[in-house]
Amino acid sequence: MSEAKPKLEITAARALNPRSLRLEFSNGAVRLFDSHRLRGPAYIPLMNEEIFTKPVVRDGKLGWRDLDITCGAKYIYDRSVPYDDNAEPREYVPTRKDIIQERIAIILFPCMAIAGIIGTVYWYISN
């Protein structure tokens, strides 16, 4: 007979800022969850800082006061990263990919804006 794994549950949740939560799990793990991982119209109310910063744990699941939203522990665990309370924050150092993407955006976005203006003018003239 195989031994059943203990059910993963969230034991504590605390907002670190308007977008991130520090979560403790029943397996002893402490993880950092970024709210950008929550997708879909049901999660739109969580964009409100007043709401997001008040998480609650209900039956081992993550929820928020005054909202009928709950997220299972496995779902949150799989979408979070390990968190160390004692870690020193490091300065962000852009990678080569980040630098290339930024340069492309600097060139591409103004071109797209000009194309949109030209398209609008053309549509206006032709109608």
Keywords:
single chain, 127 residues, alpha+beta, 3-stranded antiparallel sheet, 7 strands, elongated
Mind explaining what this structure looks like?
The chain has 127 residues and is of the alpha+beta class. Helix content is 32%, strand content 25%. It has helices spanning 49-52, 73-78, 96-126, and strands at 10-17, 20-25, 30-34, 55-58, 61-64, 70-71, 80-82. It starts with 9 loop residues before the first strand and ends with a helix. 9% of the residues are buried. The model has no long low-confidence stretch (mean pLDDT 88).
Beta-strand content: 25-35%
Instruction: Give the end-to-end Cα distance, rounded to a whole number of Å.
Output: 76 Å
- Kindly state the number of beta strands: 7
Count of discrete domains: 2
Count of separate DSSP helical elements = 3
The H-and-E topology, N to C, reads as: EEEHEEEHEH
- At CATH level 2, the architecture of the largest domain is 2-Layer Sandwich
What is the fold-level CATH name, i.e. the topology of the largest domain? NE0471 N-terminal domain-like
> Which strand order spans the largest sheet, edge to edge or round the barrel?
1-2-3-7
